[in-house]
Recover the amino acids of this structure.
């Protein structure tokens, strides 16, 4: 029996989405600050894509699993169906944000990024489904654009905090702190970066708890409760399912990857290729497990394995019957999200080059000086002055990247809800297409602007595009997917996001190194071309006539 959902007023929809602010604050810090932190800890440009592998891999695995489990969960004691998951995710993310700026070495920061992404993805997917659970079809566009508003607000504050703290508290170049011999370790992470991460940790848990407190979930019907009870009978607890699925997925591919690398040691020196080999093993391994479970339904041992892996199996079956609209969206998302990952990784390095004049040779010399200092060598006054100058320029680039990213997300805040009546008039597809083209134009122009304030102009276009990307596709998808499988399909939509990111992390390092002279400027131009291609493909996204946009039925105060 389908539950009739009541219409919600503006402030009910507002309170429901407040928690997205904290989640997106965390993502904002990842977008702007994590790659520069990796660079401060010694990473080269061509290493940045692979070091960001955590985002796509955890998104690919965690979100579909959490989506499928939450579809079959109802726990009144812990908040209902979705809220327990995004509360747990917010707690985990907050702890990682507190710890991240203390990273003493590159490997430590990379490890924390993996845990942080697990927390963010655990919170993200149920939140997408939560909005769809609560709202009738006529309010979905408004609900997801409200979520887009909080995406902009969270990332705006994250980035503006970086810009403000860099100006208020940056002292390393002036005081010689980069070569402080009294420090236990020589870390180039500026202390002002810490404050943004602390603020993000508080925002992540605080805003999610507000939404949990203010927004009750819609209880399932008696029939749904019975179905959930039968499905979970004999099934391990959710945390056991998640850990079991991750162990089964990773164990065999990693073991095979290790053995192959031992046979071919070249793979240890070409880590991108080794990651590709492991991923191929993982996909083959999962396909083999799926075939074994489906062909042996009466085998008790295999059935137990199938029960443990049921979230993964449900996601695989949902892909098999996925509406054609989602396949077309997947093509758009490949170019859109590949380009976005390029932007987040290479916009701060682009600014180092285009705005502050740091060359690859300068960066290599800086790393050589810092490596010698960490090894105990005596550093000349000339080299010390050079390194501190480069460090100061790099910090300014990070701060200005925060201002630019804060600008586009501030624009997102302003236009997110304005896109709702426009979409109701001219259609969601046309709004989405135009916004993708605007984002492409922004990326194609920003490398040629050498005035720091004029650089904010393309960010206005980028912000309009980001507002559409964060809301309109989700509203369109919510209209064509089955209500009872909303969680797993939202997880699949996220797979469409993270697979392009995953491909980018293993492919773009060699591309920028061998085809683009290791130039961050060329990387940004490459991303702009991909956005234009995404816009062309988005012209194919046609909703059924009975699912197209209706007039706005929520009053905006």
């Amino acid at each position: 029996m389908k539950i009739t959902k009541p219409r919600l007023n503006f402030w009910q929809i507002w309170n429901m989405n407040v928690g997205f602010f904290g989640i997106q604050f965390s993502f904002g810090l990842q977008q702007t600050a994590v790659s520069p932190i990796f660079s401060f800890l010694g990473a080269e440009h061509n290493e940045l894509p692979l070091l960001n592998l955590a985002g796509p891999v955890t998104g690919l695995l965690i979100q579909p699993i959490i989506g499928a489990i939450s579809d079959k969960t109802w726990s009144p004691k812990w908040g209902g169906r979705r809220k327990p998951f995004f509360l747990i995710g917010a707690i985990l993310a907050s702890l990682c944000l507190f710890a991240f700026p203390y990273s003493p070495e590159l490997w430590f920061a990379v490890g924390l990024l993996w845990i942080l992404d697990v927390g963010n993805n655990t919170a993200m997917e149920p939140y997408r489904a939560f909005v769809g659970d609560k709202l009738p079809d006529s309010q979905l566009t408004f609900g997801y654009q409200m979520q887009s508003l909080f995406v902009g607000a969270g990332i705006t504050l994250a980035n503006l905090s970086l810009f403000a703290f860099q100006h208020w508290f940056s002292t390393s170049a002036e005081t010689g702190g980069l070569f402080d011999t009294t420090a236990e370790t020589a870390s180039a992470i500026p202390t002002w970066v810490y404050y943004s991460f602390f603020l993000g940790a508080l925002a992540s848990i605080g805003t999610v708890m507000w939404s949990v407190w203010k927004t009750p979930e819609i209880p399932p019907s008696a029939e749904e409760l019975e179905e959930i009870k039968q499905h979970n009978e004999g099934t391990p607890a959710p945390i056991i399912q998640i850990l079991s699925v991750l162990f089964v997925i990773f164990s065999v591919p990693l073991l095979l990857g290790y053995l192959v690398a031992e046979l071919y040691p070249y793979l240890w020196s070409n880590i991108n290729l080794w990651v590709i080999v492991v991923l191929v093993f993982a996909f083959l391994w999962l396909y083999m497990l799926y075939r074994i479970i489906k062909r042996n339904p009466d085998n008790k041992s295999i059935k137990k394995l199938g029960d443990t892996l049921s979230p993964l199996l449900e996601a695989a079956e949902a892909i098999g019957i996925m509406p054609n609209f989602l396949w077309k969206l997947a093509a758009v998302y490949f170019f859109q999200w590949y380009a976005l990952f390029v932007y987040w990784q290479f916009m701060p390095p682009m600014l180092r080059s285009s705005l502050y004049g740091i060359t690859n040779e300068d960066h290599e010399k800086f790393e050589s000086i810092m490596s010698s200092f960490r090894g105990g060598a005596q550093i000349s006054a000339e080299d010390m002055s050079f390194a501190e100058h480069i460090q100061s320029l790099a910090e300014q680039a990070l701060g200005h990247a925060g201002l630019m990213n804060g600008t586009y997300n501030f624009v997102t805040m302003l236009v997110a809800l304005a896109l709702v009546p426009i979409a109701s008039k001219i259609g969601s597809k046309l709004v989405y297409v135009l916004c993708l083209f605007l984002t492409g134009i922004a990326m194609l122009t920003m490398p040629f602007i050498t005035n720091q304030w004029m650089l904010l102009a393309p960010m206005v276009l980028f912000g309009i595009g980001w507002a559409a990307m964060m809301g309109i596709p989700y509203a369109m998808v919510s209209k064509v997917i089955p209500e009872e499988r909303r969680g797993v399909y939202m997880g699949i939509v996220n797979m469409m996001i993270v697979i392009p990111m995953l491909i980018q992390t293993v492919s773009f390092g060699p591309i920028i190194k061998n085809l683009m002279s290791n130039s961050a400027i060329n990387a940004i131009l490459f991303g702009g071309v991909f956005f234009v291609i995404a816009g062309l493909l988005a012209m194919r996204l046609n909703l059924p006539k009975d699912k197209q946009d209706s007039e706005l039925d929520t009053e905006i105060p």
Q: What stands out?
A: Residues 172-176, 181-186, 551-557 have pLDDT under 50 and may be disordered. The two ends are 35 Å apart (CA to CA). The CA atoms of residues 171 and 177 lie 8 Å apart. The first helix runs from residue 10 to 17.
